[in-house]
# Entry
Amino acid sequence: MENKIILLVEDNPDDETLTLRALEKNNILNEVVVAHDGVEALDYLFGEGGYAGRDTSVMPEVVLLDLKLPKLDGLEVLRRIRADRRTKLLPVVILTTSKEECDLIESYSLGANSYISKPVRFVQFGEAVQRLGLYWLVLNIAPPKVRAA
# Structure
């Protein structure tokens, strides 16, 4: 699983810590890049803002995307990911506390690969993260990387 980057887009410090701890506890030792809002996530993906000059040929293996984000919400981030040919096929897992049917429908309509409602208890969350890591970093065959024009 080495060299496979995970982009975690999470604004809640407690949920960020919980996710990072669950990854570590389940021996998912991949590099995790954390973006704390939607704008920062897009800046990372497209090599803009604070990430200007980043090698955008190196993309995350999976994006774990919260929906309720400052500056730009997760649905808009997903919309922009799917609108750009460089990231159109990038696996995006919605990882959110929202159980609202409209968020679920909109996420899948915009091209989310999976939608997971965050469990409240750490044990449940750890199990969910372990399965996420196994599937997206080990079992899943990612689409080929799109080269910059």
Q: What stands out?
A: The chain has a mean pLDDT of 88. The two ends are 28 Å apart (CA to CA). The chain has one domain: 6-137.
